[in-house]
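pasting Cell division protein FtsQ for the record, 258 residues
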Amino acid sequence: MSSNMQPKRKIYSALKIIIPALVFFVSIGFVGKKQEEKLCRKIIVRIENQDGNFFINEGDIMDVVTKNGQEMVVNLPFENVKLKEIEERIEQLKFVQSAQVYRDLSGYMMIDAMQAKPIARIFNPGGKDYYISDRGEIIPVSDRFTARVMVLSGSFFKPYLNKNMLLDDAGRDLFNFIKFIEKDRFWSAQFAQLEVDKRGMIKIYPQVTKQLIEFGNTFEYANKLSKLKIFYDKILPDRGWNRYDRVNLQFKDQIICE
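structre below
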């Protein structure tokens, strides 16, 4: 046997030991990485629709996810995390309109929460006030934050305070009117309060001028607002901003000033 064959056999024998060992360690590393990819590595919370209204924050949602710190979620295998159940719990928060909870490709738990947006506040002399959201939902006020929105008062709202929505026939018409005002930059700046009686008849208290506006019901409200715009643009500058105490828009094609 040649002297060259001896080193080759030793190399071959060494490789027979080293290669399986390398395969073993690579396999362990691969399995470990796969296991790590299955873990919840981080929770990312994104809150939408705030627009300067901060009724909920990341801490509120994390308290729901972890049940006030009682349950560990980070570093837990995703197969042990009930994403749908967490989503449903988040949606129970009074200022959350909707939520989506899902896992992304990085192993993060992603939470997208849509905050309810208040557009008016119901003044309730007999108890707690409420907000009306931009979807017609009636939601409680917050101890943490107060939204700067138009005030609503009057006996019309009393039957709705124990309901979740202002969206039956009469309520829907009024909600559409309130939403129209909230979206219009001019009218939202003009109106401080709507007082609505049980028949749905509206009195408007302006922000700046002192006139009480007898608006009537919401029927053809766009035409009534057009008449009121004429009052602001033509009559008040000519006659004086505080000359009239009352403006009545209830009659077709008329503006009655007293």
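The radius of gyration is 32 Å.
Residues 23-36 have pLDDT under 50 and may be disordered.
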